Amino acid sequence: MEHTQRRPAGVARASSGLMDGLQRWLPKLVVAPTFLLVGIGIYGYMLWTGVLSFTNSSFLPSYNFVGLEQYAKLMESERWIVASWNLAIFGGLFIGICLLIGVVLAIFLDQRIRQEGAIRTIYLYPMALSMIVTGTVWRWILNPRLGLEKLMHDWGWTSFSFDWLVNSDFAIYTIVMAAVWQASGFVMALFLAGLRGVDSSIIRAARVDGASLPVIYWKIILPSLRPVFFSSVMVLAHIAIKSFDLVMAMTAGGPGYSTDLPAVFMYAHTFTRGQMGLGSASAMLMLGAILALLVPYLYSELREKRHD
Amino acid sequence: MKSFKRHLTALAVSAALMPTAAVQAGEVEVLHWWTAGGEARAAAALKKMMEEQGHTWKDFAVAGGGGEAAMTVLKTRAVSGNPPAAAQIKGLDIREWAELGFLTSLDSVADAENWDQLIPPMISDVMKYEGEYVAVPVNVHRVNWLWVNPEVMKDVGVEVPTTLDEFFDVADKLKAEGYIPLAHGGQPWQDATVFDAVALAELGPDDYRKAFVDHDMDVINSAKMEDVFAQFAKVMSYVDDDAAGRDWNTATGMVIRGEAAMQIMGDWAKGEFTAAGLTPGEDYVCAPAPGTTGQFTFNVDSFAMFTLSEEEDIKAQKDLARTILEPEFQTLFNQNKGSIPVRTDMDMSDFDTCAQASMNTFKSSADDGGLVPSFSHGLATTSYIQGQIFDVVTNFVNSNNPDPAKTTDQLAAAIQSAM
User: How confident is the model at residue B142 (pLDDT cuts 50, 70, 90)?
Assistant: First the structure.
């Protein structure tokens, strides 16, 4: 009796040990290919780009190290300075205006209006388009001989002039317009979800205390949406830094190089000008810019977690 | 069973025949971006000629403007040790590839075919690395052309300008009549193409060479260069306000439709006029860019030949090099592409008047020193310096208050930093 009882138990223990092992290893096995691809495809090449930025690589990679020479060249390059300024203008305005429009639209939509679903879809729809399409459409709209200006002239308002797209001082703002058009609906959706999550009893309590609606939004609801602001800024900031296709489709960096962004600069130098070293240096600086945004964010996130 | 046997016999017979048919047949793989219109027809003709010589042609066409996409593919293939036999590489880039040890010497073909006698030395220099041919020139484009709509000129009552001063005079009259004097597209390479022509007119061929080939700072950072920028700004002031980002062929279309009177562009513009069914000399006029009569800015397309390992393939590659320079291909190709043959001994009677004029200037300028490589098309300088000049030029054009003196300093600094 004892004998028969012990044996099945031993078998069960052995097979459960195997199952345990499998259970421990299976998830690791499943994610291993992904980690490998990410490790090589993202971090490996990041490292390689870093190495190349210290070499004098021309149109093929070389390992002739020249120290920080490429970075020094970059800092002297007027085109890089223009591209960096453009990123500051574009990024700042793009994030600011997107947040403003997104919040305002979300608050309006939150008033339990009719046909909300249809309106929401209309505002969100631009996000479904590729940046290339957005860029091409806005290029046509803003082209003085083709779009808005011509339309106004045809309608008889002949003194109307709107030539920002072909004016090197203002072209960067047309990029902002197109990008805002594309992304503000998305920000609206994020905030709308946030607004719907706010406990209605808080609002009712504030009403009882006699607070007006704007005050409720300004003092109570929006501050409680801080995490939504945070994630919106993160998403918009990385769209801004990696912006390439929109510029290529709208202005190709022109007139001249007045609408160059760092990503456009990097592509032009690495792949068409045969200055891979300089291009890599600019890529590393872009990485630095993203890290500068990301690290404080991660830090605050992780710290809060630990706090809990 | 019977039919199976017959198949087997057929196989055996064909297997026995195969080696004799393929005794000299190599494979030649050619990377090019001649994928549309006349260029595609020209490539097909080359393929046919190679196949007639018993070789297999493996087409490696990568479409995409100016070959940027093709160059990316080529780099990958070359680095992984599997380059094509020939690739469309031009100008100073040939030297870069040769320096890295990718290219093979073509001197056996060149000596047998006497290339040194056929090709002007200015051009064969570009094809050589350390005295040996590593590339074959296919054609010669003239960059300093002025394309004119004669109807518009007649309407305003002016003649085709031959100097810059005449150009300004004519352009003022055209502007007063409501025409756009100069059709242009605001893209960096087009800005540079016009600058190229103005620089040649102002500096003359010797100083042009000093500035853009030798990068002599005495010429680059001089009062003369300031004059070039000043004249260039004046030329560009006759372009309409909406030129930013316009493609060159759209600008050519404006000349064809009579909205604009003139365009400064290389002879590939002829293709647009031909496609519109126009005849040179009657419906449109090709004249040297103002102030550059008798001078010739050349832009040469070429194939660089890569080092291969298979004996048959090397044979095929050499045959390809020889075929490209044979009169038959030169005529056919250049008639389709709008350029002129690179050989100076060709019969030009089958070409149109623009091409004939181009050839005459080509020969005469090769003798009197008026033949200069075009910096805006990568024949005079490396792609880095070229890129730096493009940046300065296009920034000058698009600046709201262009300053020639300051820009000259910028140009000197930019070239110095890239050297």
Answer: very high
